[in-house]
Amino acid sequence: MLDKTKRYLVVGLGLLGGKYALELSKAGFHVDGINRSEGHLQFALDHGYIERGKTHDFEDLVREADHIIFGLYPTALIEWFRTYGPLLKPGCIFTDVSGVKTGLVEPVQALCPAGVEFIASHPMAGRETSSVEHAAEVNFAPANFIITPTGRNTPEAIAWVRELAEVLGFKHICTLTVQEHDRMVGYVSQLCHAIAVSLMCANDNTSLCEYTGDSFRDLTRIARINDKMWAELFLWNRDNLISEIDQFDAALGTLRNALVAGDREKLEELFRLSTQRRAAFDKKLPE
Known about the structure:
By secondary structure, the protein is an alpha/beta fold.
């Protein structure tokens, strides 16, 4: 079990960083926070998410941390670590919440001081809302938690992040390589967001709320999107995402060709295939 005498530091008290802080504090851990926004930091302090917090002059919090959770975009994480990483004490093990790992994990691990270890992970539990004020709305239990170790990681660090996920409430925890993670995320997350965004941008649909149905609402729920974060994630994983868009484009083209040809048999074949695959997917969903 995780040692409750250790000090945890959350850098970036956004939606996920805030949820980590909340759950760790509820579980009896000592949690500090660093955040750019004074207002969001004060919210975390006022609501007991963290014991101490700063927006600047936070070097003491960094030096005292036994474990750090980075709730930052990949670019910001690397920049932060270049500046403050040398302050981390030997024995510190830290992780992140980033949705893309290629281009992040290797540079940060290479920058780690002696005795400091970065074990990357990804809680797949985002929402359309953002900021620490909405952190309590996030439910980790049905979400997937993915650990992405490399050859630089020790069994102790991998065990720590797995136990961290359990304390946070995740019921389904798995391990992928960095490359496997980014290919998977390109399909199951980023492509879905690309489709939702494209659907909303394909038509001036300002009056659709007066007569739309559940299918449109369900398909476009994630189109309310954090522009800065998702632009960065898309660009960091562009090769995988472009490949998935091409594959989706080919599948949509097959359906379009069946419509042009008036090919009812082909349409029914596609509908049966999608139904079968969705049924198989439903059976494997974590309860």
